[in-house]
Every structure is written in C-alpha cells, then in structure tokens.
Amino acid sequence: MVYRRLGNSGLHVSALGLGGWLTFGGQVENDTTLACMKQAYDCGINFFDTAESYAGGQSEIAMGQVIKKLGWKRNDIVISTKLNWGGANGEVLVNNHGLSRKHIIEGLRASLNRLDLEYVDIIYAHRPDRLTPMEEVVRAFNHVIEIKGWAMYWGTSEWSADEIVEACGIAKQLGLVGPVVEQPFYNLLSRKKVEGEFQRLYSRFGLGLTTFSPLKFGLLSGKYNDSPDAPPAGSRFAKGDDKFVNYMRDNYGNKAWQDDIEKVRKLKVVADKVGIPQSELALAWCLKNPNVSSVITGASKPEQVVENVKALQSIDKLTPEIMAEIDAIVGGVELDPARQD
Amino acid sequence: MVYRRLGNSGLHVSALGLGGWLTFGGQVENDTTLACMKQAYDCGINFFDTAESYAGGQSEIAMGQVIKKLGWKRNDIVISTKLNWGGANGEVLVNNHGLSRKHIIEGLRASLNRLDLEYVDIIYAHRPDRLTPMEEVVRAFNHVIEIKGWAMYWGTSEWSADEIVEACGIAKQLGLVGPVVEQPFYNLLSRKKVEGEFQRLYSRFGLGLTTFSPLKFGLLSGKYNDSPDAPPAGSRFAKGDDKFVNYMRDNYGNKAWQDDIEKVRKLKVVADKVGIPQSELALAWCLKNPNVSSVITGASKPEQVVENVKALQSIDKLTPEIMAEIDAIVGGVELDPARQD
Amino acid sequence: MVYRRLGNSGLHVSALGLGGWLTFGGQVENDTTLACMKQAYDCGINFFDTAESYAGGQSEIAMGQVIKKLGWKRNDIVISTKLNWGGANGEVLVNNHGLSRKHIIEGLRASLNRLDLEYVDIIYAHRPDRLTPMEEVVRAFNHVIEIKGWAMYWGTSEWSADEIVEACGIAKQLGLVGPVVEQPFYNLLSRKKVEGEFQRLYSRFGLGLTTFSPLKFGLLSGKYNDSPDAPPAGSRFAKGDDKFVNYMRDNYGNKAWQDDIEKVRKLKVVADKVGIPQSELALAWCLKNPNVSSVITGASKPEQVVENVKALQSIDKLTPEIMAEIDAIVGGVELDPARQD
Amino acid sequence: MVYRRLGNSGLHVSALGLGGWLTFGGQVENDTTLACMKQAYDCGINFFDTAESYAGGQSEIAMGQVIKKLGWKRNDIVISTKLNWGGANGEVLVNNHGLSRKHIIEGLRASLNRLDLEYVDIIYAHRPDRLTPMEEVVRAFNHVIEIKGWAMYWGTSEWSADEIVEACGIAKQLGLVGPVVEQPFYNLLSRKKVEGEFQRLYSRFGLGLTTFSPLKFGLLSGKYNDSPDAPPAGSRFAKGDDKFVNYMRDNYGNKAWQDDIEKVRKLKVVADKVGIPQSELALAWCLKNPNVSSVITGASKPEQVVENVKALQSIDKLTPEIMAEIDAIVGGVELDPARQD
Predict the structure, then answer these.
(1) Where are the beta strands (DSSP E) in D158-260?
(2) Pairing relation of β-strands B16-19 and A47-49?
(3) Which of A30, A117, A38, A43 is nearest to A80 (CA)?
(4) 3-state SS of A216-267?
(5) CB–CB of B11 and A129 under 8 A?
(6) What's the CA gap between A148 and A139, in Å, rounded?
(7) How far is CA D191 from the centre of its chain?
(8) Oxidoreductase: present as a keyword of the record (chains A, B, C, D) (predicted)?
(9) pTM of the prediction?
(10) D97, D160, D195, D197: best mutation site toward chain A, by most A Cβ within 10 Å?
(11) C258: nearest Cα among C287, C291, C225, C236
C-alpha cells in the first residue's frame, strides 16, 4: 500500500480508501461488511469513510461493530464520517441536518454513538449549507475538534472553490483551523471541478482530496457498454432506491449517458493496450493525480477490494503518452490562459 | 407549522413558540404544563422558552420534567432560558442576578440543573446590565458557549439598539460571537422599538427576533373592551401578584390604558372584516413581519395552543389594504427621513 | 468664557459656539458676518461651525474670509465643517454628497478650498448615509485625518445611537479613531434623543456633544407666543426659503406647534421668576447638561452674540427646584428602569 | 440616466459606462474620442473606463486630454483604469506587468501621468497574477489607496470566484480593504461565470460588477448573422490586430462561433417581438441583472452612445415571459442543487 499525506496536514491515509456508501449497513449483510473491511485492512488500507446519512445511520453502526470485532487499534486506522445532506435514522427533523452549530455538535455526537468511537479522524461537511453563515460553520467544526475532542481534522464534500476559500479565510482571520480536505466526485468522466475550479487550492491552501466515485457508479468498469438503453438486470441501477441510484437510473440511456458510454468504449482500447481491466485503468488514473490523497472505493465483496488495490501497481503504466491518449478521449481540462503563467 | 431561521444563524425555530412565563410552574398545574407542551409539540412547535426568574425557577423545573416525561429527542427541540432580571428561587442575592461573569456561569449552570438538560440552545440576557462592562458580558456568554458547551447561541432581551450593536462590535473585535437574537416586547400597540429603533439591525447585524406579548397581556384579545375601569373578576390582572401583572393592574383604566382600549375596539372592526378573532389578528400581524423569527405565545390550556396556531393560516389574509387599515388605527412607525433611502 | 473638553478628547471648545447656518454667506451681509465673528471672538468664543451645504458653500467662504481678515492665529480657534446632506455650490451631483470615500475626500478638499484653510479641527458627517457601509465611512474619515492631515477629529450629526456605536466599534476593531462628538438638535422642547437614546454614549464612548438649535428656530425666545397661527411679518419663517425654514413655516400653527407654544408660554413664568429673558433660560438650560461640550448659537448681529454669552452667568440660577419646574412643563425624559442601576 | 451603487460601496456609477478599449487612442481619432465622451457625458454617463494596456497606453492619454479639454469637474466623474495583462507603451518589461507591489505602484503612477489626473476612482487588477502571493497584491492596492491617495477603490477583472474570495479574506484578516468590484466578460452568450460561479459573491461579499462586451464583440448586434464563414469586409474582425480581435477572427466560422450565431438568429425573433434592435435587447438584458452596477459599452461614434443609452428604456420590456424565452434560446444557468436553498 502507498500512504499519502492528507493535503498539507500531518495525517497519512492509504492511497485507496474504503467507503461505506450504499453498501455497509445497507445493500450488503453485516458479515460481508466485516469481510470487506478485513480484506481492506489486510491489504494495507487504513482509511475508512462513512456518513451519518449512509443507509440512514446503519453504515456507521456496521462499521463501528466491525472495528470493535476485529479489535483494530485506534491509532492504526483513519475513520471519517460526514454531516448534513440527509439526516441520520432516515428522518430529517428541522434542525438535524444542515451545518448549524446545533447540528454539527448534536450530529457528530450521534455519529460517534453509532460508531461507538470516542472520536473520528476527519469530520466532513457532506454538502455546503448556504443558509448558515460560514463563520458559524467554521466555529462549530473547531469546537468539536478543539474543545470536545470529537475529531482530529475537518473537511468539506462537494463544496465550490470559493466556499472552501471562504472557510479557510475565516479560519485564518479567527485563528482557527480551516478544512484540510475536500471530498469531490472525481473520475475520468468528471474532471472539471478537481482539475479546473480547484486548481489554485492545492498549493495555496494545502488542500487534500479524498475522491469518490472513481468508476462513476460503475460506468467506467465498462459493464454498461453493451446495454446502452436500460440497466442490465441485477445491476445496482436496476434495483436500488437510493436517491443517487434513482437519479442514475432515471438518466440511463439519455444523451449525457450515451456520450459517457461512447467515451468508455474508447477507453477500453486504451485499457487493452495497457493490458489492464477498464476499472483498473480508471482507478489508476485517479491515483495518478498528485493532488489526490486517497481514492475512496466501494466493495460489496472482499475480492473487489483486492481488485481495486491492484490499481496501485498500474499508476506507472500510465505514461505521458497514455495520458495524452486518455485526454484525447475524455477531454482535457483547459486552464484559463490568463492564469497559466 | 412554519419554521424560520433565527436571524442570520443556522438554527430553525417554529414561527410560533411556547413560553413558560407566568404559567408553567406557577399559575398552572404541572399536568396542564404537560398538556400544553404536548399540544404545542403535536402542532409542530419546536421552540420552548423559559427563564431563571419565571415562577422563581419553577418554570424551568416544570419544563424540564415535561421534556423528560414525553421523551423528546434533544435534537428535535429548541430550548431557551434567560439570565438576569429577578433571581431564581425567589431570592435575589447580591451576585445571583445581573450579567457578571460570575452570574452568567453560575446562573446558567443552575438553570441547566433545574431543566435537567446538558445545554440550552439559546441563552438570553433577560435585561441589560448597565453596571457590568459589555466586554465582560460578551466574554462570559462566549465562555459558556465555547468552553462549557452549555448553550449553542446567545441573545438579548429588551436591550436598546446601541447596546446590541456594542455587544456585536466587541464580539467582532475580540474574535468572539455576538448575540444572534433579541427578544423584545412587540405587538400591535407597541411597534416603535422593533420597527423604528431596531430598523438597521436586521440587515447590518443579521439579528433575529423572538417576540413576546403578542396580545399585550391579553388586551389585544378584546376581552377588556367592555370593562374599561377595573379588571373583570377572575382575570389575570384581578388576582396575580407578579410584578408585571401588578404594574398592569395599577395602570388599569388610566389614560394610556384607555387609549389602547380605544384602538383595540377599532381593531375589532378589522378583525370582523377579515373574519377572524381579534387575538388571531394580533398574532398574524406579528408573524407578518419578516424580521420576526418566532412569536412566543403563552397558554394555560391546550386549546389555546391550537387557537394560536391558527394564526399561521391568517398571515396571508393580512393584505396590503388590511395592513394599511391597521396602520391607520394603531399608527405606523415613521422612519427618520435622513435614513429612508 | 467657559471652555469644555470635546467629549473625552483633548480638544477644548468654548461652551458657546457660533454657527454659520442660514446666516453667514446667506441671509446676512459679509460685513455682518465679520462683525458677529469678531464679537464672538472678543467674548472668548473659540468654536466656529459651518458646513459644505450652508448657503451652498458661501458660509464656508464667508467664514474663511473673516478668519483671514481678522488675522486670527490658527491655534487659537476651533473650526468645524460638515459633509453630506445637500451638496455644496447648490448642486447635488451623483457622487458629491453622501458619505462615500470619494465624497469624504473630495468634499473635504473642496471645503478647505472654500475656507482657505489647510485643515479643520472637526469634520462632521452631517447626516448618516445608510447606503454606504459604515466601514467605508470610518476608513475615509481616518484617511483625511491621518494621511491627508485635513482634520484633527471627526464627528457625526443627527445620527442614531446605534449608528454612532457601530462606528465606534468598527474603529476599535480596525485600530482607527471613531467619532468623538455628535451634533444633535437639542433644546427644551426636544430632549429625548440627547437624554434618552444617547444616555449610554457619554460614559461608555466618551462622546461629546455640540448641540444646535437651542431656541428651536426661535420658538423658545417667546417671540411667536402671541402669533400662534401665522408667522409674524418680518420673521425668519415669513420670508426664508431654506428647506428647514420652509418646513417650520409649513407647520406653523399646527397641533405640534401649538403644543410647543403652550409650553413656551409656561416657561415664561419660570424665566420671569429667575429674572432672565426666555432665550437666556433656554440657552442656560442646554449648558446645564454636563454632557454638552458646546451649544452652537446663531447670530445675525453682534449684539445677539453678547446676549447669548450672558447665559453662561445664568447656569447656576437653574437650581434643582427650577429644573424640576421646567421638567414639569416640558416633560422629563424617563430612563428605562431596567437600566437605571 | 440611472445610477447604481458599485456593489456594496458608497460610489455611484451610471448603469451604462463608456470604455476606451480598442477605440480611444487606437482605432478612432482623438476628435472622435472627444465627441464620444462628450455625448456620453451629455447623456448622463459618469463612468469612464480604460486600462494601461489599451492601445499601449494611448487610451489613457486620449481620455485624459478629453477630460481636460471639456473641463469636467473631478467629483462629477468616475474614472477607472487597470493594471496587468499587457504592458503600457507597447513594451512588456520584466516587471512592468503582473501584480507585484513594484508594478502596482509604478504602473498606477504611470497611468496617472498618462491620464494627467491625481487619482482614479477605481483601480482594477486587469487579470489575476498567479505568481504573486495574494497578500502582496492586497497590500499593494491598499498602499496606493490609503497611503498614496491614488485611487478610491480597487477591483478585479476576469478573476475566478475563489481568487476574489481569497483577496477578501486576506483583506479582512489584515484589517485592509478588499476588492469592491469585478469586471467580467458578460453577455447573453456568456452567462456562466457571472450567474453561476459568482452566485455567492454578491450577497456574501457585497461584490459589484462592471461588465464588458455586452454584445460579445458585436455578435449580438446580429451583424454577422448573414456571413457565417468569414468576417464581412470592413468589419472589426477583418482588419484589427489586437490580440482579442485576432482570436475572434481565427475562430470565425468554427463550431462554437456557429452555435453562437444560431442563438443570435433566434434572439432576433425575440427582439422583433419586443420591438427593439438586437443590440438594444442584448444591452437591456445585461442591465436587467440587479448584480450589475454598470455595463461598459464601446463607441466609435457619438451616435452609438445615443443608441446604447436607449437600452435603459427597454429594461422593463423584458418581462418574465420574455426572459423565459431568452433562457430557452441561450440556456439558463443551472445553480448547484446543493446550494439552491
């Protein structure tokens, strides 16, 4: 396993992380959760990611039980969870979502109860909350870190560049800590935010990235290449009722979807040339980006974890020439010329 | 129920709140307190307000017992209490009132003990304390919020505009949090402070309002319209010995009182035209003000809560024309021409 | 002459000042301006007040010429002018009024040109400007004081208490100087702002006051006592076309006016008892207030100056008993009991 | 003419401004510059915009000469210039561009010499400079404003949202002033930055906008509708050698160009329905955006100025229905759902 610093911070995370979205506490049985997490740990993965809203809080519970059962040392693992964007326990009360001081404090306490941990390593703002003043958000995350001791670091997820910079500026002004990491959607088909909008954030603010959806919900594995119009029976999009899954299914076969599939088919040629599966190409490509601290992967069986980890060996196979071929297929991110100095 | 942000903060409160003044722990039995609070909760009210001085501390005790008994989740309700302006436990020791650091810390701890809660959501300075330096006040409220974790936000009650602005300025200067809400006396017969003196505070300082006495101690319900000289037997003013009640009884029938009754009689015509009871008109009128986060209502029986909540349906009935008629009766608030831009 | 500190500052102003409103450069000839100013100076008055908008800039020009002609030493006099509330030169261009940084810098430069002075001692914001952020206002006044050297101190005129406190707070936060003085309308018939709204500002912020209109446009001299319905021929209200004069004339004889005249008539009895003219009583009463640094008086002939100065001798004649009689007539200012500790 | 505040600042600019790009000191003779500026002034335009790099510094010289010749009062006009992005005088020395402290101070001094003015009202950073630390940039702009008195306000041009927020945050932290205005490219065919990326900046940071290219270099006037493949003889794109003109000519007739022309043709139908020329529709549409302080227009003859000003009358003709039709043609800007609250 390769370990990378979480942005400019002192924390090291495995370059591949394991995420509990959709699966732990939800689509997979608890035994499977245990098997996947154990496999990940045995492969050297130390970073496990969940959220208050994953499977209505069950993901945190399942993950916490596995940690207990396997008797992992607390200092050997990096655990993160996230607040906002769907409440825990399937219920969205007036004040148990968003990023108010009240929810950050109450929500993290509830997450820790579910995880049965004293603290997490990273607490994320799962989505921005435009109604709450940024100063309130920054202060509340500092409170749970500095006074309560419930987290080591805080980060953001799916925030805009200017929101992250605002949070960093306010933290600086108030002598507090800003977010050290952002968790964006990032893959071969969705590069713009990470490589374009965020371009200044890495060196100027020391921002780290823990990216999710490296396969864009499976698209980049190539498994939908031959069923362009409707999800194949048994696939995640066929049965799920998660809001993201529903969104994907509803858009299955539309114009944007077909444009994506077109690119994925072309990427197959590149993957074959490199001599690796498509999904490995997609993962390795994410890992190639030096601003990425960890690529969060999902797994519904232990073998998938092993497959995912292979991508680490393929990073070097992505030579400048191969990267150029990939850019030609998926489109590179043009940087504003006014700033390319 | 409608929920509004508490000023510019991230906290959401129900547009109608339930207050424990005079009643809970005092004029009404504990069973009634429970019945009223349950009814309020069932109507969607999430904001419950009390104070260390209400019924000499008994209001906090009664409210805390109901919360326990009904098994409410802490993240589902917003609880506020207040310090200063009459001590708790019926005793006013040298240092157990005012806004000294000593009383803010000791007083809030005692309130939490009575409420049997770990923290309140909002802690108010019940009245200003002109003898204590504002910096001491601001620092002490920040201490109980940031270090002790005994409150989420702090506010003021019956402060002047310049006092609120001073507190905000000192907080800014010291990198601390200022008050996010003021709790003023506000109703159809007392508009000047909220609409005049405070006019700049909403947009410049993001101040929220939780207002009290929407019926001006019952006057605006019209129930004193026919007994202009002495309180009707059985009314609150006939029997109470609270200082406010005494004040009202002592002024019953004087010039200011009769001027008010005159207006209330005229408002009856408007209420009849709109087709709602006078008290509903009075409540809806307060709710119509977009700077009001929550109108705190009292109730000595559950049916009153249900009555009060009806006002939410009547907000839209207060058309610009009706509002103009009301202004003609009670008098609009003239804004200083130098600032009417 | 008595000299008082300008609030908490180190500057001393004569307890009576001479103002150039309506008269200098306008209603009176330049010779008269010179005569009045000379008389004032000879009486020990060192504080001369004008504004960019008085007589469309002519007041500043006239005052500057007199200073030159009489060869006064710069360090022997205190000169103030004001920006905003009507442009200079009779014209109101888009940006040559208000309190934008542009107008504060350009406007003060133009005032200094008209006054033919290198600097004024006090530059006032003649009225608040709600459209310009307070931080911009505070910074611009500091710029003309600290960097340009065009003024020694800055003040406000007819601002609300919370606006003054906001300016002081921002100045503190930014390490800049706040306003040291407010110039309000203050007289026996208009006490509320100075004694009520401003009550906390004197000790907490060291605010000084230079008050204007001690006779409420002549009303308190008693000269309108016998012509309640229309201004006597030849009086200022009969002929003027200044906006304030027009306002007064338009309200001549209305309800508020007659209420005032009623009080003035009763005050005559008090003045007679004390044995001084009504106008002297009115002036002395203003001077009696220890928070008043200087009472700005007008004069359209030198003798008036001499009359005005006599009031200094009458301050001590206003015994507690006389002051109580006056309160009984004009109404005292009730302080909020919650803050009378 | 309509005047709007420059963002949250106290400065007022005419809703239409006149820019000196390409024309003044360059493509048009000096007599024409004078005629255009006079016409603009007579129409009530008070905002005149130039840059050190326009026509290699000749634009500033020409504009300065006109101001002198027409004898405009300094407080009656708002003059802006810009630093960085191409040096003045046709030469790009190592240090006479960029946003180093050295160039901001030396460059602005040189601009003032060319303009023959003591100060400008707004100094813009014409483009970001990614090599210079933001703190150096913020400090240098504050130096020329606060210490040198060479400008009243500073702004940015074509910066990203996160760069603007970083500058604001650093200014706040250091007690300095941040940028009050951004000058972006904005028109019916290029909405994304102003309406999407910048969406949070208006209310959170009080940012104003002075937009350029309301007709996208003439495209939106419809004059290229009938010559899709090559610029019509005599048009700006046929003869110019400015870098922007070259860029446009090189892309004439390509895919993006033709997509634009397609939309412009459809917009003609809307313009006809409203009963105004296409260019007037394009201008009025920019003016309709309440976050736009001023739309900078170009003119190579006085009649064009008169034409442009007509757009002010057409703002109200853009009813919600018409705006919806326009959106359907050019595409609305989707706001990130996570932030649409």
Answers:
(1) 181-183, 208-211
(2) unpaired
(3) A117
(4) CCCHHHCCCCCCCCCCCCCCHHHHCCCHHHHHHHHHCCCHHHHHHHHHHHHH
(5) no
(6) 12
(7) 14
(8) yes
(9) 0.94
(10) D160
(11) C225
**Beta strands B208-211 and C47-49, pairing class:** unpaired
What count of other Cβ atoms lies within 10 Å of the Cβ of residue C29?
13
From the list A105, A87, A30, the residue with the least C-alpha distance to A63 is A30
Place of tokens 């009358």: D313
Do C278 and C220 meet the contact criterion of CB atoms below 8 Å apart?
A: yes
The conformation of residue B333, written as its DSSP 8-state character, comes to P
Taking an 8 Å cut-off on Cβ atoms, the answer to whether D10 and C96 are in contact is no
Residues of chain C numbered 105-144 and touching chain B (CB < 8 Å): 127-131, 134
- Closest by Cα among B245, B148, B160 to B194: B160
As given in the structure block, the two tokens for residue B214 are 């929407």
Encoded amino acid at D34, one letter:
L
* For helices A302-314 and A278-288, angle between their N-to-C axes, nearest 10 degrees: 60
**A273 lies within 8 A of chain D by CB:** no
Cβ-defined contact of A162 to D200 (cutoff 8 Å): yes
- Residues of chain D with pLDDT below 70 are 87-92, 239-244, 336-341
Joined together, the tokens standing for residue D196 give 């999407």
Residue type, A127: R
Q: How far apart are CA C270 and CA C273, in angstroms?
A: 5
- Taking the C-alpha atoms of residue C41 and residue A320, their distance in angstroms, rounded to an integer, is 87
Query: What string of DSSP letters covers C55-114?
Result: GGGHHHHHHHHHHHHHT--GGG-EEEEEESSS-GGG---TTSSSS-HHHHHHHHHHHHHH
pLDDT averaged per 10 residues in sequence order, chain C, 341 residues: 96 96 76 95 98 92 96 97 78 83 97 98 95 97 98 97 98 98 97 95 97 94 85 73 71 87 97 97 98 96 96 97 97 68 37
Name which of A194, A49, A191, A186 is nearest A124 in CA terms. A49
CA dihedral A47, A51, A57, A63 (to 10 degrees): 0
The mean pLDDT value for B121-142 works out to 96
Interface of A with D in 11-30 (CB under 8 A): none
Distance CA C50, CA C18 (A): 9
A168, D169: Cβ pair inside 8 Å?
Answer: yes
pLDDT tens per residue, range B192-230: 999 999 999 999 999 999 999 999 988 999 988 888 777
Where helices occur in chain A by DSSP H, the ranges are: 30-42, 58-70, 101-115, 134-142, 161-174, 201-205, 236-239, 243-251, 255-274, 278-288, 302-314, 320-330
C-beta atoms surrounding A247 within 10 Å = 12
Q: What is the pLDDT of residue C340?
A: 37
User: How far out from the chain centre does Cα C64 lie?
Assistant: 19
Per-residue pLDDT 10s for chain A (341 aa) are 999 999 999 999 999 999 988 777 777 778 899 999 999 999 999 999 999 999 889 999 999 999 999 999 999 999 999 999 876 655 557 898 899 999 999 999 999 999 999 999 999 999 999 889 999 999 999 999 999 999 999 999 999 999 999 999 999 999 999 999 999 999 999 999 999 999 999 999 999 999 999 999 889 999 888 887 777 877 777 766 666 677 777 888 888 889 999 999 999 999 999 999 999 999 999 999 999 999 999 999 999 999 999 999 999 999 999 999 999 999 988 876 554 33
Q: Please tell me the distance from the alpha carbon of residue A289 to that of residue A279, in angstroms, as a whole number.
A: 16
Number of C-beta neighbours around residue B332 at 10 A: 13
Type of residue numbered A230: A
Backbone angles phi, psi at D86, to 5 degrees: 95, 125
